[in-house]
Design a protein that fits this description.
Layout: E1 4-6, H1 17-23, E2 45-49, E3 53-59, E4 68-73, E5 76-90, E6 95-109, E7 121-125, E8 128-134
Antiparallel strand pairs: 1-6, 2-3, 3-8, 4-5, 5-6, 7-8
Protein name: HSP20 family protein
Pfam families: HSP20
Family: Belongs to the small heat shock protein (HSP20) family.
Length: about 150
């Protein structure tokens, strides 16, 4: 089995994110927080191959079930989530209000052994999004047959 991870988010920028981090590493409030942090955009993922299915897990704490969008098209699985939060910060002379968007997107090309016509079970519990992808009938292993030699 092989899964291929697509990561196209840096193709539009001719320089790498470390150069951007260095450039914007000042105390300027416009470029604070984790806006350019690679790790904040990509959740960790586990993939298990079981007898009848693949189980894919994403570590995505802090989201609600309604924040996720999971699509499958042409053997490409897209998992994304978006959450909007507001932060207010007050001081004696000013008031600062920020909108913070927490989002991620992972794209995986699935192996041909995945049955893309079958239903996909998606469960979000305790910060883990778990997807169960059924295998095609023809790829399920048949039990080993022992032949007696006489």
């Amino acid at each position: 089995m092989s899964l291929i991870k697509f990561n196209n988010r840096n193709r539009l920028i001719p320089w790498n994110n470390n150069q951007l981090k260095d450039f914007f590493s000042s105390d300027d409030f416009l470029f604070s927080d984790d806006f350019f942090d690679d790790d904040s955009l990509m959740p960790a993922m586990n993939v298990k191959e079981l007898d009848k299915e693949f189980e894919v897990e994403f570590a995505a704490p802090g989201f609600k079930k309604s924040d996720f969008e999971v699509t499958l098209e042409n053997h490409v699985l897209n998992v994304s989530a978006k959450k909007e939060t507001e932060k207010e910060e007050g001081n004696k002379d000013y008031m600062r209000k920020e909108f913070s968007y927490n989002a991620f997107k992972r794209t995986l090309r699935l192996p041909e052994t995945v049955n893309d016509k079958a239903d996909i079970k998606a469960v979000y519990n305790d910060g883990i999004l778990r997807l169960n992808l059924q295998k095609k009938e023809s790829t399920k292993e048949t039990p080993k047959k022992v032949i007696e030699v006489i």
